[in-house]
Amino acid sequence: MNELLRIENLHASIGGKEILKGVNLVINEGEVHAIMGPNGAGKSTLSAVLTGNPAYEVTAGKVLLHGEDLLAMEPEIRARAGVFLSFQYPVEIPGVSMTNFMRTALNEKRAYEGKEPLTPKEFLTLMREKKKLLELPDKLNNRSVNEGFSGGEKKKNEIFQMAMLEPCLAILDETDSGLDIDALRIVAEGVNRLKTPQNASIVITHYQRLLDYIVPDFVHVLADGKIVKTGDKTLALELEEKGYEGL
Amino acid sequence: MKVSRGDIFEQVFVDESVNLHLIQEAGSRVKIHLINFSSATNSITIEQAGEGCETEIYALAYLHGEESVTTETHVKHAVGGGKSNQLIKFVLDDKARGRFIGDLKIVQDAQQTEAHQTNRNLLLSDEAEMRTQPQLEIYADDVQATHGASTGQLDESALFYMQQRGISKQKARQLLVNAFMKEVLDSISDSAIRDQLLNTIDGVVE
Questions:
Q1: Nearest residue on chain A to B181, judged by CA atoms?
Q2: Where along chain B do its domains lie?
Q3: What's the complex ipTM?
Q4: CATH classification at residue A110
Q5: Distance between CA atoms of residues A21 and A241, nearest Å
Q6: Among B162, B169, B201, which would you mutate to test the A interface (most chain A Cβ atoms within 10 Å of its Cβ)?
Q7: Which of A90, A104, A144 sits opposite B167 (nearest CB)?
């Protein structure tokens, strides 16, 4: 199996406060890894650091994506190299239409891969096709990015963007929060359909519920900035029953 | 200059200093756009002298280097039942300076007036400077009047969100600045002028 991501002894802080205190994790192609843990354990920090959020500082350790130094790359290069974050709180961008935003993103990625930009017709056909996957209405194309979207629409819109960009590593940061059961099912089915033997995902969640739909190969428990336990999907059930204190 | 009863005065001024004094007669409409990409001084004085007038003033200044724009608006509702709306935006890069003086007066007899004044400014550099001086004098009691002014920087979380989708930081800035300016240009009625200016800002935003 080919290695996709390797995290070694990763330490990171925000505002001088250390949040990640030595994370180690290896993800191979085709795998789904769930990361669970109590509030404040560092789950969102891990996703922020992997994607290059400038608010966080890496103080030690390394991260390799397909053997290359991920931490040396600018955030947009990481994205073009295939790291995708489904944001816990997707950002509203007034005045920038979904179409313009998505076309710019997709064509920048294609340029990075040495491909020609899509023609407007090809692009719109692709948008329509991927929208169906998430049961998103066409009218969203002309709206500003995430502006006035409901909580469920925002999360679906994240997975829609993932479908458009076809990342090799998708990080889903509490994608289940704020979703009703129908939206959860649509989002999870979207994620499952995007799964290939070459890509992988990291599913960050508080609850077992999402993992009924997106079945992980591994479950990791992150506590106080470190992975303290790793198991298979039954670990999530155990956590649901006993809580994190029961470990 | 008088805008006669029921007439419409509509004009887009691009890259010039404008000094305009209009007296509106009943039922007349005024719609002005001031678009500045280099140093200028604008002074717009409007008096609604008849009933049921409408006034719209839009201003956009996008400045680099050491350029500076001062825009003054003096809007007086002397008679009731009128409407005025002002949207004033400055985008300041490098050491550019912007100044907005917005003087809005509603006299005691001008009941049932609706007046709005909004000033939004975007600073793209630490050395750019914006001064805003709104002056509101409202003597009538049965009116709807709103006023707002804010000066800020590009939304860091929006920039990061776009970068996370593979859009370069420079391109992300460009999209946000264009979106900010577009709100003013979208209100231009003449589609040829509007499209030309939209193309211009696509070209000048770095």
A1: A95
A2: 2-153
A3: 0.95
A4: 3.40.50.300
A5: 27
A6: B162
A7: A104
The order of strands in the sheet holding B54-63 is B8-14, B29-36, B54-63, B83-92, B114-123, B144-152
Instruction: Work out how many domains chain A is built from and give that number.
Output: 1
Alpha-helix runs per DSSP H in A20-138: 43-51, 75-80, 98-112, 120-134
CA pair distance B127, B134, nearest whole angstrom = 23
Segments forming the whole domain that contains residue A64: 3-246
Q: What is the DSSP letter of B140?
A: -
Those residues whose C-beta lies under 8 Å from the C-beta of residue B113, and which sit 6 or more positions away, are B77, B80, B81, B82, B83, B84, B106, B140, B143, B144, B145
pLDDT (tens, 9 = 90+) of chain B, 206 residues, equals 999 999 999 999 999 999 999 999 999 999 999 999 999 999 999 999 999 999 999 999 999 999 999 999 999 999 999 999 999 999 999 999 999 999 999 999 999 999 999 999 999 999 999 999 999 999 999 999 999 999 999 999 999 999 999 999 999 999 999 999 999 999 999 999 999 999 888 776 65
3 state SS of A113? coil
Q: Given the structure tokens 């990291």, which residue do they identify?
A: A202
pLDDT (tens digit, 9 = 90+) per residue, A7-54?
999 999 999 999 999 999 999 999 999 999 988 899 999 999 999 999
Tell me how crowded residue B16 is: count the other CB atoms within 10 A of its CB: 12
CB A82 within 8 A of CB A120: no
Contacts of A87 in chain B (CB under 8 A): 161, 164
Measured distance CA(A231)–CA(A243) in Å, rounded: 15
Residue B103 CB burial class (10 angstroms; 0-12, 13-18, ≥19): middle
